[in-house]
Design goal:
This protein is of the alpha/beta class and about 425 residues long. The protein is built from 12 helices and 20 strands.
Length: about 425
């Protein structure tokens, strides 16, 4: 493995259509998995050639997500289990850039095209890809986590179907900041729950990475959103994004499920859960039709309890724990639904991206860091010292570049659950 100089990442001596022999990349290797600040190291890596229906993109900016904290640490599983054919892992599941070289069979994209990359990969040979949903196929993987060749490098290798037109009203770093969380929220609400005007929606972590987009989608759909947040400052962001109101979760700490509660503790927790339901009704005027879940163990019993009869709890993650323990009587006797959702397919990502290009949905960005900050950014996330979405400049020489049309850009804000 060859060491690399960070100063060279914005400079190229080749034109679109031609690839250099090597590139600078942040690399994780199995033998040094551990704290992100140590696991991520800069190396000089051979640039891959695009295969059939693949594209090499020059990365201009990348987005940071928690999945590559897991990749660095090797927990809950090592990423090398997902791509054993490669001895290195280049992470990064959000990115914006320029098409640099296309593989055989690619007809919709040409070198020089400016793009955003969505992170779902699937085999063209999976029959589910062609008749059901690419996410139903056994080959489905998240690019830059379950695959290598992610966005923390000068070049990335992706499937052609992952490319979306870069919104012209956004800078490189803004365009790199939203894909994974926004497209996930879009599928949850628009596709899986079929949200409609007039629906009432409870959003956990409404000022977090997923919640800021769920709140905006509710506003756009004509639905009323009540956000759950950890401070009044974050509640102000929820109302700015179009929420009808918010609840400070610190006022209801007793409702959180920790596991192993005694009968008396469970009785007290249930009482707090009822009180929380009353606070939700006070804001929304009724029980929610939809609960937007990604917290898991701590909140799931409350989600099932407060959602309306015949309502839907849609879940895409479990940040507080994935062993869920709740009173199932409130599920079957009131005929509620639990719906699982995972990222988005290419069609959904494209439809969601159009709303971003039209300025109807906006990214929410906390901090932009230079390329040499990749390891630091993940360590901040690991230690919960970040206060929102972090974007990384790669090929872009500075902030604010790449915007070619007027329009609303990112909202700069500290966010969090």
């Amino acid at each position: 493995m060859a060491k690399a100089e960070v100063r060279s990442v914005t400079q190229l001596d080749v034109e679109p259509g031609e690839l250099p022999k090597t590139m600078t990349a942040w690399v994780i290797r199995e033998e040094r998995q551990g704290e992100p600040i140590d696991a991520f190291q800069i190396e000089e890596i051979e640039v891959p050639e695009p295969g059939p229906f693949e594209v090499i993109v020059r990365v201009m900016a990348a987005g940071v997500n928690f999945n590559n904290v897991w990749a660095a640490r090797g927990v809950p599983v090592s990423v090398f289990r997902y791509h054993p054919q490669e001895d290195h892992h280049i992470g990064g599941s959000d990115g914006s850039g320029v098409v640099w070289k296309t593989g055989p069979g690619v007809t919709m994209w040409q070198p020089g095209d400016e793009v955003v990359i969505h992170c779902n990969q699937a085999s063209y040979e999976d029959y589910e890809t062609h008749g059901l949903d690419p996410l139903a196929g056994s080959s489905q993987k998240i690019w830059g986590y379950e695959t290598s060749w992610g966005s923390f490098a000068q070049f990335t290798k992706v499937q052609a179907q992952q490319l979306l037109p870069k919104p012209k009203n956004l800078s490189w770093e803004e365009a790199a900041s939203y894909g994974l969380t926004y497209f996930t929220a879009y599928r949850m609400l628009i596709d899986r729950c079929k949200i409609q005007a007039g629906h009432k929606v409870l959003i956990w972590g409404a000022a977090g990475g997923l919640g800021v987009f769920a709140t905006q989608l509710c506003r756009l759909a004509g639905a009323d959103a009540c956000g759950v947040v950890s401070s009044d400052e974050k509640g102000a962001l929820v109302t700015q994004l179009g929420g009808k109101g918010y609840i400070n979760r610190n006022e209801f700490e007793g409702m959180m499920r920790k596991g192993g509660e005694s009968p008396d503790e469970e009785k007290a927790r249930f009482k707090e859960m009822r009180r929380f339901g009353g606070a939700v009704r006070e804001i929304l005027g009724d029980d929610p039709d939809i609960v937007f879940e990604h917290v898991g163990q701590a909140t799931f019993p409350t989600s099932v309890f407060v959602v309306k009869r015949f309502g839907k709890v849609v879940i895409c993650g479990a940040t507080s724990g994935y062993n869920l323990d709740f009173d199932v009587r409130y599920l079957w006797m009131r005929q509620k639904q639990i719906i699982g959702s995972h990222f988005a397919n290419a069609y959904q990502a494209n439809e969601a991206n159009k709303l971003m290009a039209d300025g109807k949905i906006r990214p929410v960005l906390w901090r932009v860091m230079p390329f040499e900050g990749v390891a630091e950014a993940h360590q901040l996330m690991r230690e919960n010292k970040h206060h929102g979405k972090i974007a990384i400049l790669v090929g872009a020489e500075g902030e604010g570049l790449g915007k070619t049309e007027e329009g609303p850009g990112a909202i700069r804000a500290e966010v969090g659950s």
